[in-house]
Specification:
With 489 residues, chain A is mainly α. Chain A contains 19 helices and 2 strands.
Amino acid sequence: MTGFTTAVHHLSPELALLATALCILVLDITIAQKSKRIVPYVALIGVLVTLILTYTLWGTEQIVLRVLTYDSLTIFSYFFLLITLIGLITISIHYIRDASDNAPFYYALLLFNGLAALLLMASTNILMMMLCLEFLSLTSYVLTGFLHQDTRSTEAALKYLIYGSIISALMLYGISWLYGLTGETDYLKIAASLANPGLWFAGESFKPRLLLPVVIFISTGFAFKIAAAPFHQWAPDAYEGAPTPITALLATIPKIAGFTVLFRVSALLLPSTTAVGELWHFPLLAILSASAMLLGSFGGLLQTDVKRMMAYSGITQAGYALMGLAIGTLPGVEAQFIYLIAYVIAELSIFAIILNLNEPGGSVEITSYKGLSHRSPLLAVMTLIALLSLTGLPGTAGFIGKFTLFSACIESGYLWLAVVGVINTVISFAYYWKLIRAMWLEAAESLPPIQVIVTTMPVLITSTVAIVVLGFFPGAMLRVVQFALRHFG
Amino acid sequence: MDLPYLSALIFFPLLTGLLMIVLPRKWVNVIRVLGILSALLTFVLSSYIWWIVGTSGSFEMQLVENRQWISQFNVMYTLGVDGISAPMITITTFLTVLVLFYTAFTIQDRVKEFFVLFMLLETGMLGVFLALDLVLFYVFWEIGLVPMFLIIGVWGGKRREYAAIKFFLYTLSGSVFSLLAILAVYLNTGTFNIMEAVAAKPFVDNDLWGNLAFWAFFVAFAIKIPIFPFHTWLPDAHTEAPTGGSVILAGVLLKLGAYGMMRIALPLFPSQFYFYSFEVPIITILALFSIVYGAMVCMAQWDLKRLVAYSSVAHMGYVALGIASAAAGVNVIGNDPQSYNAASASLTGAAMQEFSHGIITGAMFFLVGMLYERVHTRDLKSFGGLAKQMPVYYGFMLLTAFASLGLPGLIGFWSELFVFKGTIRFMPIMAAIGVLGMIFTAGYTLWKVIQSLFFGTFDHERWENLSDLKWWEKVTLWPLVVVMVVFGLYPAPLLHTFNGAVMTLLNNIIAP
C-alpha cells in the first residue's frame, strides 16, 4: 500500500489508454464525419504513449491499490499486449472505414478491451481478476457484434454473450467458494490459507480432492477465455461471424491476457507445492491441454470456412500452450509464453492476409485462397510461412515454441503429453494443407491479381520477418521471457 | 584450414535462391543460367571438400565448425565432414547440377519458383549431411521437406496433390517423433552434439526410455529410406514428381534417412539396434522384405516410373541390411577382428550403396523422364522394339539397367558384394534370402525394363517419329554413366573413403 502518487505513476499506462479511449469518444461527438479518418491514428498514438509509459515502469516491483502487481511479468505482458494492439488497430483501419459508420466507437472499444486486458494481467486479487475478466468479455461481446447490420455478426455476439455469461457465473461460483473457505481475496493470502487446511476444514483428514469442484469451476472461466476445449464451443461461431479484425482480436488478446492471468493463478493461487495445486496442474490442466489439442485438431479437419478453421486452430494452439503450464516447472511456463509469442505473430499475419482476401461482410472460404500464388505471390508466401509456424516447422518461431514445450515436457517426464502434442502437429497440418493446396496447387487464371492493402503491409512484413528471424535467432525472445519470469523460480 | 567451407557450401545455394527471388519472373533464362552456375560452383566446392577429407590422413571429422547458436538450450551450430558425408554432399551437388541443367530445358512454367525451391532444397540436404548437432540436423531435415512437397505438388503428374500431401504427412510424422527422441538423448547425455552424445553412451541399460527413443529414431529414418512397411509414400511421390524432383528424391533424399541411421541411430543406440537386428531380428527382416518384396512388386509393374520407384525401395533395402548386419555384430566386433572386418564391410557396403544407388537411380529417372517427354505414357505394354529407333537411349538404358542389377564392372556390384560379405558372417540365412532379391532384380530389370521397352515388335504407327536423345539429354546422362563405369572398374578411392570413416564410427561405438 503506497502513496497516491506512486499509484498514479504505476497506473499511468492504463490511464493513458483510458484517456485515449475517452478522447476518441469525444472526437466522435465533436468532429465532422469525414475528419473521423484520423481516429485510428489517434488510437495508435495513444497506444504508443501507453507503451512508452510502460517502459518507464521497467524494473519496478510494486503492489498498487492492493489488487494490482507490477513486476517483470506485468511489464512483459503489457509490452506484448500493446504491440499486438498496435497490430490490430493497423489492420482494422481499412476494413472499418468501409464496413461501418461508427468507426470511432470501434477504436474506443478496442482500447477499452486493451485496458481490460492490461488490468487483468496485473491483478493478483480474485475480485479484481473477476471484474477485469468481465470487462474484457463485455467489450469483446460488443466488438463481435459490431456490424449490427450483419445478422451473422449479431448472432455470433449473442452466442458468445450467452456462453460467456454462463461460464462467468460458474467461475464466480468457484471463486466465491474460495472466499467462503478462506476469507481472503488476495492470491497469495488464499494460497497460504489453502496450504493450511486446519484453518477452515473441520474434519479429521483433509483430502485435496474435496476442493476439486472449486478448481474445476475456476478453470472454466480461463478455459473459456483462451478457448480451450471443452469450453471452446463459442469460438468457431464467434470467429466466423465477427468482423475479421475482431476475429484477429479474439484470437490474440484474450489468449495473451488469459494465459498471463492463468499463469499468475497457477503460480500464486494454486502452486504445485500445495496439494490443491497439484490437482490443478495435474490432472486438470493436463487434461484440458490434451483435450484442447485433440478436439481442435480433429474439429478443424472438417471446416471449409477459413475463420472457423482458424478458430479450431486456435483451440489446438491453446492446448499446446496449456501443456507448458500444466507441467508446472519454470521451463514449462517459459515455453508457454514463447509459444504464445510465436502464435500471436502468426495469427496477426494470417488475419492480415485474410483481410486482403475478403470484402466486408463476406465470409472467407478456402476457395478464396485459390490460385493465390498467382494472384499475389507475396501473400501466398506469407501465408505459407505463417502456417508453417503454426505447424511448428523448423526455421519458424513456432518451432522454437514447440521445441521448448516438448523439451520441458520430456524433462519433467510428461511423455504422454508430448506424444499427444506431436500427433496433433501432424493432424493440424492436414487442414493447413487445404489452404496451401488452394494457393499453390489449384489454378485460377480467371481471377484478378490482388492489390495488397497498404495499411496491412506493416503488420504483414513485420510478422513474416519476425517468424523467420525468431525461428533462426530466438535468443532475444528467449531472454525476454526468462527475464519476465525471473521471480517465479 | 580455417575458412568456413562447410557453411559456405550449405548457404551458397540459399543465397543464390534469395538472389533469384528478387529477379523478375520474366528473366527465365537468367535464372536458369544462374541456377546451373551456382550448382556447378557448389559441386566444385564439395569435390574440393571431399579431396580435403581424402588427403587429410585422418578419419575423424574434418573442417569442423562450432559456434554458439541458441545458447539457452545448449544448441550449437556444429558442422563437420568425414568419409561418409563427403561423398554424400558430392553426390547431392552433382545430381543438383544435372537436375537443374535438365530442368532448364524441360520445365517452362513457373521456372523461377522451381529454381528457388530447388536452391532451398539443396541447402537443406547439404545441411543434413554436415550437421553434427542433433537440433541442427533436425532443422535442416525439415527444411528439405517443404520445397520437395511443393515441387511434387506444383510440377508433378496427375495425382500430384495426393502424392505431395502423402509424402509430407508421412515424413513429418516420422520426424516429429524423432524430435522427442532428440530431447530424450539430450536429457540423458546433456549435449546435443552427436559426437559427444555417442561418447557419453546413453541408454546402455536398455530400459524403456532407450527403446522408445530408439524406435522413434528408427521409424523416422525408416520412413525416409524407406524400409518396408514404411515405404508406401514412395511409389506415389516418385511417380508423380517431375523428373528432376524424382531424381533428387531418389538420389539424395532417401539417403538422408540412411545417413541418419548410420550417423545417429546406430552409434547412439548400439545395444538396442543389436537387439532388434539380431536377437529379435525385426529390422533385418524388414530390410529383407524391402529387398525381396520390393523386387517382386517391381516385377508386377507395368508403369515404368512406378517400377523404378519400387526398385528404389529394393535397392535401399541393401543399405538397411548393411546397417542391420553391422549392428548385429556390435557385441562381438570389439574382440574379434574378423567380425570387425565383416561389420565394417557391411557398413561400407551400405554407404557405398547409398552412393551407387544415387547415381544409378538418378540416371534411371532421367531416362524414364526423357521417354515420357516424348510419348507422355509410361505404360510398358505400349512399347517394344525401341532399340532400333532410339539406339543411344537404348545404350544408356542398358548400361544403367545392368548397373542397377549389380553387374560386376559397374558401380552397383561392389556395394552389394560388401553388404553380403558382412551379413554372411553374422546372419547367413538372412544373407541367403537377400541374395534371392538379386535374382528378382535381374528378373524385373531384364524382362520389364529391357525386354518390354527395346525388344519385340515395334509399333510403327505410334512410334515412328520418336527421336533419339537430344544433345542436352546426352550431356545430362554422360556424367552419370562415366561415374558408373569408372567407379565400377576402380572403386578403391570411394571404398577407401567410406571404409576409414566407417571404422572410426565403429571404434566410437566399441570405445569404453
